[in-house]
From TrEMBL:
Gene3D superfamilies xrefs: Alkaline Phosphatase, subunit A
Identification of the protein by name: Arylsulfatase D
Membership in a protein family: Belongs to the sulfatase family.
Domain Sulfatase N-terminal: from-to ranges: 35-357
The organism's place on the tree of life at top rank: Eukaryota
Required cofactor names: Ca(2+)
Organism: Chlamydotis macqueenii
Length: 379
């Protein structure tokens, strides 16, 4: 389960939305009748992690202020407990299974930037519809709906192919592999088996070589050479992928260009916030859609130093409070540009908190409040 929070910054926004919806799709509307739309989506945030839903250990004054001024939804449930299908449903308004972004018997999630899967190019997203209405559309932050189909440059699943004029952020999602100080997360159990197998094969090779040198084992040098070659080939075959996960998956892009590979996690938050404010400033004279898709509060919980240790809920609470601070800066930018009365702000989580996400004694997942835990997962 998850929650969605719909917030009208002022009562004047409601008739603007109705005016937008009642117009023909290709009608040229004046900027006065077209509200700006700012979508703020958290990642793995539980309904019980926000003050306006009853949390008293994590401070979220900016999100709470939105709820106080607007409409708080309590029965708006996400379409899936995983990021990829849930976000596909959010973008299209369709069950993720209908667009091939979910599975019947197994979790549907994109594991590699280089994979060929993703949101089909022929799907109609809300960004495409608003683009047709003359909106400037931008996505800042997480995508996780695929990039390429058949080649590394076709970008058939890229945000710019789904109605967004501008994209800056992660085409993939945050994983612990993106943070060098964290324990690797991608296929952790399988990687352990591969490493154990490599050690066993290497030990057999080394034992055979020592036995040959001491005369205890009669084995030809040609056989030992083949065995050593196989060990090296086996190691390279899997390490070439899993040993460089940060370089394959943890990247930042601006439109079609890779700007960081791997991403510098220490400055990711400030860059995403700066890009969001810059998009508002660039498009203040025309209707725009800004979809700010936070990397918070997904593990590895990238949190700036000034927020560490501030909450009563550990690293997870620190991360959520930093996200709320970012929300406040975006709202301030809207007010500064005089757009408060013509902007619809919508805050949501892609699905519920990853309650069972723990490392040692650290609780790294959120709290789902009245909803059952252990059903919402990360990614």
């Amino acid at each position: 389960a998850s929650f969605l929070l719909l917030c009208f910054r002022t009562p004047l926004v409601r008739p603007l939305i109705f005016a937008l919806l009642l117009q023909p799709p290709l009608a040229q509307l004046s900027s006065i009748t077209q509200p700006n739309i700012v979508l703020l989506m958290a990642d793995d945030l539980g309904i019980g992690d926000v003050g306006c839903y009853g949390n008293d250990t994590i401070r979220t004054p900016n999100i709470d202020h939105l709820a106080k001024e607007g409409v708080k939804l309590t029965q708006h449930i996400a379409a899936a407990p995983l990021c990829t299908p849930s976000r596909a449903a959010f973008l299209t308004g369709r069950y993720p299974l209908r667009s091939g972004m979910d599975a019947v018997n197994h979790d549907r999630v994109l594991f590699w930037n280089g994979g060929s899967g993703g949101l089909p190019p022929n799907e109609t997203t809300f960004a495409k519809i608003l683009q047709q209405q003359g909106y400037s559309t931008g996505l800042i932050g997480k995508w996780h709906q695929g990039v390429n189909c058949q080649s590394r440059n076709d970008h058939c699943h890229h945000p710019l192919n789904h109605g967004f004029d501008y994209f800056y952020g992660m085409p993939f999602t945050l994983i612990s592999d993106c943070q060098p100080t964290e324990t690797p997360e991608m296929d952790r159990a399988f990687r352990r088996k591969l490493w154990l197998s490599t050690q066993m094969i290497g030990l057999i090779t080394l034992t055979a070589a020592l036995g040959r040198l001491t005369g205890l084992i009669l084995v030809r040098w040609k056989t030992l050479t083949c065995l050593a070659g196989f060990t090296l080939l086996f190691f390279v075959s899997w390490f070439s992928s899993y040993g460089f996960v940060r370089y394959w998956n943890c990247i930042m892009m601006r439109n079609h260009e890779i700007t960081e590979q791997p991403m510098v996690t220490e400055r990711t938050t400030s860059l995403i916030l700066r890009e969001s404010i810059s998009f508002i400033e660039r498009n203040k004279h025309k209707p725009f859609l800004l979809f700010l898709s936070f990397l918070h509060s997904h593990t590895p919980l990238l949190t700036s130093e000034k927020f560490l240790g501030r909450s009563r809920h550990g690293l997870y609470g620190d991360n959520v409070e930093e996200m709320d601070w970012m929300v406040g800066h975006v709202l301030d930018a809207i007010d500064k540009e005089g757009l408060k009365n013509t902007t619809l702000v919508y805050f949501a989580s892609d699905h519920g908190g990853w309650l069972e996400r723990q490392e040692d004694k650290r609780q790294l997942g959120g709290w789902n409040g009245i909803y059952r835990g252990k059903s919402c997962q990360g990614w």
